[in-house]
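Appendix B. Raw example, untouched.
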Amino acid sequence: MASTSSTNSAPSAAPPTSSGGISALGVAAVLVTVVLWASAFVGIRAIGPSFSPGSLTLGRLAVAAVVLGALVLPQLRKSRLLPQGREWWPILGYGVMWFGGYNVALNAAEHLLDAGTAALLINVNPILVAIMAGLFLKEGFPRWLIIGSLVAFGGVALIAFGSGPASGERSTADVAGVLLCLLAAVLAAVSVIIQKPVLRKIPAAQATWFGIMVGTVCCLPFTGQLVSELQAAPASATLGLVYLGVFPTAIAFTTWAYALSLIDAGKLAATTYLVPGTTILISWLLLSEVPSAWGLVGGGVCLVGVGLTRRRSRTVIRP
């Protein structure tokens, strides 16, 4: 078994880039993550009637563990490098909180809220990540990150305005659902901060698979529910569960980790402001749910805000 120093010398998930930019592959990873995570909100809502929150999480993670394990296990057999000692603690942390707790809380919330509302509420997460990254990862508080985040959050607010009673539709914002979404946002934000240092030592796919395995173990008490619900679920719901495991979990969490290894946590988290607008577009294309004018304007403002976060600040306020 390799020592800790050997683990630290393992090749990183991606080579560093010059001049403070990121590679085209890094940009592609961000875009894939945004689109697939947006699709997850729609998918969870669609199959929610067939699966309880815990069993849905377990099924999704089990599929992801198998799919991603097919890629990771041969790498581990070849390198024989595993985290050692205390290096497992942050992996256990984000495995329990993000892959386990976050998914159960979000699934439960979407039994009470529509997909768009859930996606909007989860978007307090980038603000939390930016604050914690500035404080704990010493990324500081770049001026354009702050400005862009506020602009993007304003875009999210416009989308929310167009999705609520002002658009003539009944609000679905149940208090319990709102609280569950906020809990999920906090768990995800803390997990991002914990995961960032791990990616300096472990490749993205391995870091993601370890977290998925931890989350799967945590959800094993839901095995009985999953088995019985799979037997009663229609084929479309089962296929939806498989989709959630392969794409928004195995693929998107890996592309997220890859991008996180290249980009400051605060700046990367700001890109998730694009998720609600993307969710609206997916609903429009797949479910024929026509977005409101406010939704389209809000999506455009989110794009502008995320673009502003990518500007380089001359001064950075350090905590």
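End of appendix B.
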